[in-house]
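2024-03-11 09:14:02 INFO worker-7 job=invfold-0412 stage=load source=structure_tokens
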């Protein structure tokens, strides 16, 4: 399978996911330069990578940059530019862009829309209902109905929330008390809250490169959302990830793509909003099989930092082909990977996920990299030239990735490298991949219907 290679690529974003994307793409044969907007000083250290201070949330400015830089491809990293319509602007300028249009991006920007599409496509999701402002009593009644059926409620803000707009309730009283806060001050014209039944089981992420019709899967990964060890503390954007998953093997990934990604692609195409981009399926592995919890329309963060180093193939040609709706009919269903496992540990700033402190000097980056770890910058800033090095400049500061022959070896490498890095009041988990579950027999039946 021979595909055209984009020589100049523009990546939008400046976080850890975009650092991993730029790192991967710039290392590939035929790629001359990767431009990142706005990027960061940490990303700019990568060979073959140049950062440009352009706002990715400004579609006309992004389109003008793509034209001025004569790029062959634009890869959109975060969800916010997709929700701002940046792909629509690039399409109008004739620039191949890998990411969904504003209409197709609703698969992430509206959880109610995702449920509606999945229902029409026959994709299993938890029982759910959506509510707008003024429907507080109806939302409370649905929470009580779930409780009467022995189910706790999951409350999800309908809209972009940087991975933190979800509350998994532990009691009826907690859910009832929180419902009004999701609806206060919201429009009565569109859903503001989705209430779902709470399902039990480990979660998993399966992300696929999609060209509107076809889907090629990355290896499965698992994200750890809670701030503290043992899945305690508040929800975050993600405190670590690992791949592969012992409880979601290659055959199970193939089954997920057949049961989730491809039906959703077919339904979106039927509705006149074909999806081209990274389609992320967030799953819960129940005893009856995987069930879709949510879709995102970009690579996960920190899943990207864990899965991109495992790829044993070039990404750029596949992404360009998908952006133009031209993945070959004989494209494999899964991307080839190395035999290595990866574990990514996120180091977060003091105060995260609330109000992270900025400006704390970071020590030990060179030691971690010298030990063989990959260190992706998510929220850092270069210190003054007289001081050198980097300081914290965001909530999730770094993702430290260890590689090994298995998850235990990768975890040991990641832990040692993370131990080498320090900044004041840093927060991290010490149990990423520590209790990776074995493969349950229930998954042999494939995704739940």
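2024-03-11 09:14:09 INFO worker-7 stage=emit residues=449
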């Amino acid at each position: 399978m021979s595909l055209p290679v984009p020589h100049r690529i523009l990546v939008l974003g400046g976080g850890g996911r975009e650092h991993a994307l730029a790192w991967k793409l710039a290392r590939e044969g035929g790629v001359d330069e990767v431009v990142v907007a706005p990027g960061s000083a940490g990303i700019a250290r990568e060979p073959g990578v140049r950062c440009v201070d352009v706002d990715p949330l400004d579609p006309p400015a992004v389109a003008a940059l793509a034209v001025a830089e004569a790029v062959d491809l634009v890869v959109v990293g975060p969800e916010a530019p997709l929700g701002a319509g940046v792909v629509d602007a690039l399409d109008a300028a004739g620039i191949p862009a890998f990411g969904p249009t504003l209409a197709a991006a609703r698969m992430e920007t509206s959880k109610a829309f995702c449920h509606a599409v999945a229902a029409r496509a026959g994709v299993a999701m938890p029982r759910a209902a959506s509510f707008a402002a003024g429907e507080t009593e109806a939302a409370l009644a649905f929470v009580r109905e779930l409780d009467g059926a022995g189910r706790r409620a999951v409350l999800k803000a309908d809209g972009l929330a940087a991975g933190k707009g979800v509350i998994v309730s532990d009691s009826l009283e907690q859910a009832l008390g929180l419902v009004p806060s999701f609806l206060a001050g919201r429009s009565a014209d569109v859903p503001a809250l989705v209430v779902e039944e709470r399902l039990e089981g480990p979660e998993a992420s399966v992300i696929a490169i999609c060209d509107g019709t076809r889907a090629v899967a990355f290896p499965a990964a698992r994200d750890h959302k809670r701030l503290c060890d043992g899945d305690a503390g508040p929800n975050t954007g993600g405190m670590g990830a690992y791949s592969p998953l012992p409880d979601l093997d290659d055959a199970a990934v193939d089954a997920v793509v057949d049961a989730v990604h491809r039906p959703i692609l077919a339904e979106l195409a039927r509705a006149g909003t074909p999806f081209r981009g990274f389609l992320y399926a967030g799953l819960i592995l129940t005893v009856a099989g995987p069930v879709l919890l949510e879709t995102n329309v970009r690579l996960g963060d920190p899943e990207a930092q864990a899965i991109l180093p495992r790829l044993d193939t070039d990404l750029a040609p596949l992404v360009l082909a998908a952006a133009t709706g031209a993945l070959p009919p004989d494209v494999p269903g899964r991307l080839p990977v190395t035999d290595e496992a990866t574990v990514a540990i996120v180091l977060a700033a003091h105060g995260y996920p609330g109000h992270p402190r900025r400006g704390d000097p970071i020590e030990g980056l060179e030691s971690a990299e010298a030990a063989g770890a990959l260190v992706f910058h998510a929220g850092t800033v270069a210190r003054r030239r007289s001081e050198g090095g980097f300081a914290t400049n965001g909530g999730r500061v770094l993702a430290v990735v260890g590689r090994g022959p298995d998850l235990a070896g990768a975890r040991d490498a990641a832990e040692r490298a993370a131990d080498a890095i320090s900044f004041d009041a840093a927060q991290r988990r010490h149990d990423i991949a520590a209790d990776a579950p074995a493969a349950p027999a229930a998954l042999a039946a494939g995704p739940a219907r």
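2024-03-11 09:14:09 INFO worker-7 stage=report msg="The radius of gyration is 21 Å."
2024-03-11 09:14:10 INFO worker-7 job finished
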